[in-house]
Design a protein that fits this description.
By secondary structure, the chain is mainly α. Helix content is 54%, strand content 0%. Helix 1 packs across helix 5 (96-112). The model has no long low-confidence stretch (mean pLDDT 88).
Amino acid sequence: MHFLRRQPDDAPPVERSELRQYRYLLRTASPEALDDLHREALAVLDPAVRAIILRTAQERLQTGRDLTVDDTRHLARLITVAEVRTPGVLISALVDIAHERLARAVLRPAARNGLLDDYDAWDGLEPDRATTIERLPESLRKGA
């Protein structure tokens, strides 16, 4: 007789801690803070990882075709605007290694600046579209 352990049918996937913290920042930090965090993170990431992020952004967002891996300021802005306008549009498409390295590189300065202080109280739910759009400056709301 064989005994099989039954797996729960609808068990939600477990989100890794640093990826959840990164998602928290994307949903709660100001666009200006996110730009700064992404700029700092991209500057320290390996060019090969930046290339993966850039290629994914170009494919998913159909913009930024003229950017290179060294255009970290513009790539940071692209990530910020995309994720604030449409949560998950870019990070959900990143391969695991690029997602994890970007998250870790963003979390270091975020923790130093106290941007994770309210993380423990966050419910993890995605905000509604109107709330996300309101976070963007008026000049970046076009097409949203």
